[in-house]
Write a structure and sequence with these properties.
Length: about 325
Amino acid sequence: MLLQDPENIFNEKIDQEVKIEPKDWMPETYRKTNIRQISQHAHSEIVGMLPEGAWITRAPSLKRKAILIAKVQDEAGHGLYLYSATETLGITREQTINDLHSGKAKYSSIFNYPTLTWADIGAIGWLVDGAAILNQVMLTRTSYGPYARAMVRICKEESFHQRQGFEILLTLSNGTADQKAMCQDAINRWWWPSLMMFGPKDSESTNSDQSMKWKIKRKTNDELRQNFVDMCAEQVKVLGMKLPDEKLKWNPDTKHYDWGEINWDEFWDVVKGNGPCNKERIGARKKAWEDGAWVREAAAVYAEKRKKKLQVA
Ligand code: BYC
């Protein structure tokens, strides 16, 4: 009997929509692309806790505080599933985290902007989680099994996040003149950075072609961004607010909204580490890692003790 070439088996699985699993043979570049994307996704979840966490002590009511704590905790959970999914590809958690701290690994540009008012928590939920959901619903069908399965639960939680953000903005938009102004100001500041979350335009996206062939990505950066604009252009009407784009206009021919141009210099500047909060965010993550060293050490000693006890028994 002839042994089938592992690369053919891999390609057939991709063609036939069979998930690739950790012990399956896979091209080294497929493994590396997944390590890069999934670990960067995990870092985004963990760094993303910081701008929102800053408002836990300042939430305007006990109910809002409880909801925000639950949301920030969810993000930690998402980070953990995603770090675990990354580990199935043969890289340790420590290596992954070292790459974040050294600046080798990226995380989403969006989390390098500050949260200046309570309305920013609403704008993050509506726009940032809204953008994340569009991207992540696509990723529930990604070809790497552990990543796809992690996304299913994450998407359910993100839907709740998005709705709680919209509800914060809806409350403010029905409030006093100051509250309305605060709501519009947050939308103005978060709109363009949210569009940047989808990555560079397709013509500049170095990874998209290969990732689409391997079905890691199912839609391109520009396709998802357009879906997002179409969705938000309608939702903003419910808020009675405006998106800060003079060129935003329904196009009956394309059946999509036309819109303005992203400031790509700003995007690359933030990606390269020069955004308003990059240094602060990485500084906070490094400090948390160092402060948590004793917990990791104690857990390792406990695990060792338990192992010995089980061996004796
Ligand atoms: N920021 O070839 P491209 C959340 C990089 S968190 C920074 O198009 P790709 C939440 C890109 O990495 C949700 N860097 O890349 C959490 C690449 O550089 P490398 C976060 C960016 O991978 C807490 C280069 O630019 N979601 O929801 O094909 C609270 C060229 O780009 C960005 C994810 O992480 C960016 N925005 O496509 C609240 C989704 N965009 O790596 C909410 C998973 C691009 O070659 N990731 N770059 O050095 C993805 O779907 C894809 O990685 C992307 C980019 C669509 C982001």
